[in-house]
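Sequence only, no structure available. Ideas?
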Amino acid sequence: MFLDRPKSGSKALLVHIQKHNSELATTDELKELVRSAGLVPVGCLSSNRRYPHPGTFIGGGKVDEITEFLADQACDLVIFGDDLSPTQERNLEQALDKRVLGRTGLILEIFARRARTHEGKLQVELAQLDHASSRLVRGWSHLDRQRGGSGRGAGASSGLGGAGETQLEADQRMVSDRIKRINGRLSKVQSQREHNRRGRTRSDVKTISLAGYTNAGKSTLFNQLCTADVLVENQLFATLDPTLRKLELPVIGNAVLADTVGFIRQLPHSLVDAFRATLEEVSQADLILHVVDAASPLRGEQISEVNLVLEEIGAEATPQLMVYNKVDLLDEEPRIERNAHGVVTKVWVSSIDGAGKELLLEAIAERIGEAVIETNVKVRPQDGRIRAQFFELGAVVEEIPCEDGSVEMHLRIQESSLRKITRNKLAGQSVP
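Reply:
I predicted one. Tokens follow.
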């Protein structure tokens, strides 16, 4: 009732406000958002404003221009590339006699279409209800106050009792009740995720999370690294629901890789709050792979926007490895870059053809590895399972057969992994 979503295929007039402080705020981005919401852009009007008009955001002259355009062009709604206050949205709808959507409402519509799992749908509905709670006046201005009571008490003159609940108040109560129920369900999801994370910590399983601007190629990279089948489409927010898969790393062994929703300029706070349980996979990770569209001319500003969201969810202190993706579109070769201290900071890859995949796996293992040592161990014939585990980790540099049937193995391995595998069962070991 109060989540009056536009129909798929609805025609929309776009209103783009050009600002001087953001190169990401382009008409192309706005059009891509509109198409991702299943809507059809039929025109785009631009306006330069340093400060928004308090009543209509764009001022009376631009409102008249939009009215003239709507008189000549069939449109179902008007979409703004910036957020509108409830008052501005209401004033514009009255002046234009059309449904009006701001940036947050548009992004919420995209998320509503993308959600597939029960958790994802709950998170989107929570964000929609939070956004709609201040906009419930739409559609109910014609309703008078309802009146209750039988009118039989003393002083009754018209057969009606005192003032009852307005339709608006009833809607607000329904929204509030629904928000409480959804928050309760999402709390259970959050508890389950926390339980799973504690289990991975006890098992010493590292977690790596993908983060990046939307459409940077995170899901394609995820599929390359994990041989997974996550949906990949060349559109904004193609991936919404979180996905976790096992990742096999050299020397380290098994880790968990998490693919999450892409970020974007001015990601609505209601969405960040609603997806907080999901985004905790990022903030609680041992390492964040910050995926960057290396071919984008705006990659610098996209990196800044992603870092702002990471700061908002409390992940600014989590170690990052920058992954510059789409080198196939540039005159670049896959490579690793290190800082002055020799630490890997950047990896250049192409997720579409897998170029640089091995370099990235090595870089991840190096960043999350702890106390990697080189050592020799002697493995007896009856310790075949231990020998197999060393090979599964990719820790074997060389092995030499011995006369007694055992093998001398030269390993490059984490100390913790060595202790866990051997458990003092080997005939002996020495560190060169």
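The longest helix spans residues 167-202.
Hope that gets you unstuck.
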